Amino acid sequence: MNWLNPTYSAKDEQGEAVSYRDGKRLAWAWSVINPFFAWIGIGLYTLTDHVWLLWFPIVQGYVLFPLLDMLIGEDTNNPPEILVPQLEADRYYRWLTYLVVPMHYVVFIGAAVWLARADLPWHGYLAVSITLGLAAGLGINTGHELGHKPRKLDRWLAKFVLAVPFYGHFWIEHNRGHHRQVSTPEDVASSRMGENIYRFALREIPGACKRAWLLEKGRLERRGKSVWSRDNDILHSYAISIVLQGGILIGLGWQMLPFLVIHNVLAWWQLTSANYIEHYGLLREKLPNGKYEPCAPYHSWNSNHKLTNQILFHLQRHSDHHANMSRAYQSLRDFPDLPRLPNGYYGMFLVAYVPPLWFSVMDKRLLALKHIQGDLSKVNVDPEKRAAIELKYGAERG
Question: Tens digits of per-residue pLDDT, 239-260?
Fold first, then answer.
């Protein structure tokens, strides 16, 4: 098999030959080197001595990436289903998720050492801290992909990469909490129509942490163990975080404390930003037995924008991920009539940070979905905003 561009092939039920080549195979490597975008500003500053260039990676993420997503466009290609087992058995894709884990440590520690030695004004220090926080947010995305896999190695690597932003409870909460309650009023990680991102963050960040600890406590108690047992998966990652970030403070000095605080909070904010846009207003129907219908592709907002999908391990094909959480990133599919975001995640984050703009772009898009068609009873509405929303959109329908 040609390693660089292999052809997967099989015969279908009619005996016809089916073949497939992943045209994005080499492009997936962008997900591995993407964390190093945090060093671009440092490199430009070193070459020019212009402090303002330390802000370039932020401009890259929130200006250049959305523009490139618009220009490059979308990719709706799906691998033939009969060939998905071969695609998922190809170790190349798995090794990319393994390789990126040490990259996050190199980026974080290297930039911290540079920052401690650099003589920067406060705004330069802030730029580097924010940029490294955004890079650590990519680490949470890596932990997301690894944490979904059943292999012990993958789970441990998830703990290690989530330790960089001190967010080791994420994969517990995400797998056993968010995936079960997604697109319901009970889910702290599903945003509601009329809820702005800042109110959502105040509900989601502490709520996710609390839910993770309750879930892990329940798991351990069922095994007759204490939540403070060495078998607590959250504590494993937290211990690595303490060693890593404690080592930064001891080795580089207490002047690194603001850096660590900004770094961690910005990484958490990146995750919250993703959670906010991924399920905004979408609602699973409650069945007569009191349970919710199974999660379907139309319970998540999807994006097929090529650039940001290839640097985020296909995170933006979120609809198939939630409907089929065990599928590997390289085989996630697009479907017709999905809730679709008008840009990739970075562009939509920027829109979400301006709530009036977000509501203007997304509320009518939400109500126009094929399975909703203006029916607010099929929408996850913020209880505090329900009266105003019903008045506004009821009047428009009238």
Answer: 999 999 999 999 999 999 999 9
